[in-house]
Amino acid sequence: MEPQKVVITEDLQQTLAEAVGACGADRLFILVDETTAQLCLPVVEGFDCLKDAHCIVIGATDTHKTLDSVVHVWEELGRMGATRHTLLINIGGGMVTDLGGFAASTFKRGINYINIPTTLLSMVDASVGGKTGINFRGLKNEIGVFNNAQTVILDTQFLKTLDHENILSGYAEMLKHGLISNEKMWAELVNFQFAALAAQLPVLSRMLADSVAVKQRIVTEDPTEQGIRKALNLGHTVGHAFESFALSRKPILHGYAVAYGLVSELYLSAVKTGFPTDKMHLTVSFIKENYGKMTITCDDYPALFDLMTHDKKNVGNSINFTLLGGIGDIRINQTATREEIYEALDFYREC
Ligand SMILES: NC(=O)c1ccc[n+]([C@@H]2O[C@H](COP(=O)([O-])OP(=O)(O)OC[C@H]3O[C@@H](n4cnc5c(N)ncnc54)[C@H](O)[C@@H]3O)[C@@H](O)[C@H]2O)c1
Ligand SMILES: [Zn+2]
Prior knowledge:
It is built from 14 helices and 10 strands. The strands form 3 sheets. It has a 6-stranded parallel β-sheet, sandwiched between helices. The chain has a two-stranded antiparallel sheet with strand order 6-7. The protein has helices at residues 12-23, 34-39, 41-44, 67-79, 94-106, 120-126, 164-179, 183-190, 197-221, 236-247, 254-273, 277-291, 301-309, 338-350, and strands at 6-8, 28-33, 54-58, 87-92, 112-117, 131-136, 139-146, 151-154, 321-326, 329-334. The longest helix is centred in the middle third of the chain and has 25 residues, at 197-221. The protein is an alpha/beta fold. The structure holds nicotinamide-adenine-dinucleotide and zinc ion. Zinc ion binds at residues 125, 173, 236, 254, 258.
C-alpha cells in the first residue's frame, strides 16, 4: 500500500491550499465539533482555499461518536449538494477524524477527506492509518472501515489550547511508539519535562514528527492489522480493560488507560519475554509521576480479566498481547494465563 501523505507544516494555509487543490473537488465541507468550532476553526476561517466551504458541527467528545452524528453529517452533505467529487476536511481530535473519515468513506460510496488533527492523540495516532469509525450499542469503534485520508496535515499550533490531561493522553501513545522503536526515542520520551511545556513545544513538535513516522511506517507495512500493526496494541489489552472498567466509576482518557496498561504489560514483558527490568522501572516511574494511578483492589481483578477476554484483538479463548523482548524488540501474538495477568495487576497496584 502507498504510504499515506502526512505533512507537518508551519504554513497551514499554503499546505491546505495544495492539498485541497490536489483533490480537484467541486464543493468543500469542514467538519468540527462544538469545541474545535470555537478554538480551531478561527485559525482557518480567513483562508482563501476555504472561502466557499460549508461548515458542519457535531457535539464534542466520544459520547457524540454515534450513528446519529454520522446521519447529521450525511444529511448536511446531501442538503448542501455534495457529490462524489466533494471533499470533507475534518478539523478536530480523534473523535472528529474517526467519525468524519467514516462519514466521508460511506457517503455516495466514498468521497475524499483531509484530516487536520487538533489534539496530540489525533496527531500522533488517530488521524493517521486509515482506521475510521464510530461507537455502536455501547461498543467502541464497533462500526467502521479502513480508508486513508487524502492528506493528513499536522500543525502543532493547535496544541496551544489543549489542556494538560489531553496532552498527556496523546503522549502515552508517543511513549508506546518509542518503546516499540529504539532506545534513543524511548530515552528522550522518559526524560521529557512537562513542567515548562510552553517553552518545550518546539522539542515536542520534533518528537511528534518522529513518533508519527513510527505509526506511518507500521501501518504502511500492514494496513489491515494482519501482523506487525499489532505492535501498536502494546499497552492496549490491559489499557482497554482499565478504560472500560473506569466507565462504571470515573471515566479516564484513553491515553491514561494506555499508560496504566503499559505498566502491567511491561511487567508481563519482563516476566515472559525478557524485557530488561531497569528499563521497565524507569518507564514505570515516568508513568507514575505524570499519570498518577487509578485505584483498583484485588476484588476488581475478575472484572478486569473478564473485560480482557472480550477484547476485539483476541482469537479463540486466549487473550492476545503484544509484548516486548527489549526496546524495539516486538513480540506479537503473546498470551498470558489468568495467574500471570493477576500478577501483572498486583505489580500495577504495588509499583
Ligand atoms: N483511528 C485510530 O487509529 C484511532 C487511534 C486512537 C484513538 N482513536 C479515537 O480517537 C478518539 C480520541 O481522540 P482524542 O483524544 O483526540 O479525543 P477527542 O476528539 O474527543 O478530543 C478530546 C477533547 O479535546 C477537544 N479538543 C480538540 N482539539 C482541541 C484543541 N486544539 N484545543 C482544545 N480542545 C481541543 C475536543 O473537542 C474534545 O472535547 C477516540 O474516539 C478513539 O477511539 C482512533
Ligand atoms: Zn490507543
